[in-house]
Specification:
heterodimer, A: 274 residues, mainly alpha, 3-stranded antiparallel beta sheet, two-stranded antiparallel sheet, 10 helices, 50% helix, 9% strand, B: 243 residues, alpha+beta, Ubiquitin-like (UB roll), Fumarate Reductase Iron-sulfur Protein, Chain B, domain 2, 5-stranded mixed beta sheet
């Protein structure tokens, strides 16, 4: 038996010996990267619709659309499409600014992302059993601004509407000047909608509203139906973190794909035309 | 037979130190076995609370290499052995002696939660419930009250806000009652004003450490937050309620 130098467990930040800092660090890097990209694309105000091109201060049909090489391929950052001509001090205002608050508020108030950013950005706590920024004055989501998180369901309503808007965009992406077709861009937009739907319909607020608030499922036929819906939402909810990340990458990739097609980096491969 | 070094917290809330003990390991050995070995062969004054040694009584909660764990479930062979294994008491509650803490605050808090209230308290008819109604709350009944979730909760651990938050274990208790198909009480105002559900910021550490794998955050705390939002934070729901 040996006695070490006395050292209180209270005096150290954590006694964990594993790399607890890796996960919050990765979260910071990925979310910061996404925010930087999304901000750039929001204010770029160009290369978001393959059908149009910006020439001499006005939108015109693009040559590749007129040639039947691309359809109505629209970036999810700019959907639904608003073609506005708003200028402030000579600068054009991007329509994406009107759209961004809705998906952004859904992710900001999302229960999963709250865990991610409270840990990684606020250090409250940075990892389990690691002392962070939580002080004796801590009030959490009881006070402003975090009390706003309680309105997550309203952000869900907007996100719900976006699933239909983006689904409509998938259909429109198949519309060419000379008919209909399916391209790689269509599949990219479709994948984006599937991932976003998996994320949106696994939302904790949706799970509550669709049946989670019921206590007696066997009491009526309506409640039995709600139980079935709650079970399905629970299936997605169990995978909420997975869909939260994949849908984030999905929407960024869909936008990047549209941008590359619009800017002529490569042509959108068309598989079928009819 | 190989040996491992355990660096064990010794003392109480007024004075403490770490002491190193070398223990011979055996296949399948857990940290609690090593503690028992120390008590038997080296230092009988080492205090440790335990009971079933089967991860069902929730008595032997502690922290192994800084992570809240049941000592009877923490296998030695799953821990790095090139450095001492640090064993400490759960940090959120006051130390009585060595690895034993005073968790009585939890029992005082539990008394404040309104128990099951049936519609007809005087009825002698047997209570009947369908399986689909109890599926959800059965998960909460798995709680063994080890208080590891209370230990890891940063509101209680770092903020020491026992004055404003009951902690995850009690949120599980609230959920088991609020979602009960035969319960008629409404605990949402109490949850908001006294139990402090709004202080939880969903960082899920309680779920990560639960030895019974209860989805504390997703299945208990968040549904309760949503129920509180129904009553206090949803203007449209409020509008319909008044009608």
């Amino acid at each position: 038996m040996a006695t070490t130098a006395p050292k209180s467990a209270e005096s150290v930040r954590t006694l964990r010996t594993d790399a607890w800092w890796v996960q919050p660090l990765l979260t910071v890097l990925v979310l910061t990267g996404f925010i930087a990209y999304a901000t750039y694309r929001t204010f770029e105000n160009n290369f978001f619709l393959a059908e149009l091109t910006w020439v001499n201060g006005a939108w015109q049909k693009s040559q590749m659309y007129l040639d039947g090489k691309v359809g109505h391929l629209l970036s999810p950052f700019y959907s639904p499409l608003f073609l506005v001509d708003w200028r402030v001090m000579g600068y054009y205002i991007s329509p994406a600014i009107l759209i961004l608050p809705f998906p952004l508020s859904f992710r900001l108030t999302c229960y999963y992302y709250r865990k991610a950013y409270y840990r990684s950005f606020f250090g409250s706590p940075p990892a389990c059993a690691v002392k962070g920024t939580t002080k004796k004055s801590y009030r959490g989501e009881q006070v402003f601004p975090f009390v706003i998180q309680n309105l997550h369901r309203y952000a869900f309503y907007a996100a719900f509407a976006f699933i239909f808007i983006l689904s409509y965009d998938v259909i429109l992406s198949m519309k060419y000047i000379d008919g209909w077709g399916i391209s790689l861009g269509t599949l990219v937009l479709l994948l984006n909608v599937v991932l976003l739907a998996g994320y949106t319909f696994g939302c904790h607020s949706f799970r509550h509203l669709i049946g989670g608030k019921v206590n007696c499922y066997s009491c009526s036929l309506a409640n039995k139906t709600k139980y079935g819906l709650w079970r399905k939402a629970t299936f997605l909810n169990d995978r909420h973190a997975l869909f939260a990340w994949t849908s984030l990458f999905g929407v960024a990739f869909a936008d990047l794909y549209v941008r590359m097609v619009c800017s002529g980096v490569f042509a959108d491969p068309v598989f079928v035309k009819f | 037979m190989s040996t491992v070094t355990l660096r064990v917290f010794r003392g109480d809330s007024t004075s403490s130190e770490f002491r190193d003990y070398k223990v011979e390991t055996a296949p399948g050995m857990v940290v609690l076995d090593a503690i028992h070995s120390i008590q038997k062969n080296q230092d009988p004054s080492l205090a440790c609370r335990w009971n079933c040694k089967a991860a069902k009584c929730g008595s032997c909660s502690g922290e192994v290499n800084g992570k809240p764990k049941l000592l009877c479930k923490a296998r030695i062979d799953e821990l790095p052995q090139d450095q001492p294994i640090v064993v400490t008491p759960i940090k959120t509650f006051p130390v009585i002696k060595d690895l034993v803490t005073d968790v009585s605050w939890n029992y005082e808090v539990a008394k404040q939660i309104e128990p099951l209230r049936l519609a007809d308290e005087g009825s002698t008819e047997p209570l009947r419930m369908q399986q689909i109604d109890v599926d959800r709350i059965q998960e909460f009944r798995k709680c063994i009250e080890c208080f590891l979730c209370q230990d890891v909760c940063h509101v209680l651990r770092d903020g020491q806000r026992k004055d404003i938050f009951f902690g995850p274990r009690h949120m599980v208790r609230f959920a088991s009652l609020e979602m009960h198909p035969l319960d008629t009480a409404d605990r949402r105002p109490f949850l908001k004003e006294h139990a402090g559900i709004g202080t939880c910021n969903i960082t899920k550490c309680c779920t990560e450490v639960c030895p019974e794998h209860i989805h504390i955050t997703d299945n208990a705390i968040i549904p309760l937050k949503e129920r509180v939002a129904d009553l206090f934070f949803d203007p449209i729901a409020k509008l319909f309620r008044r009608r």
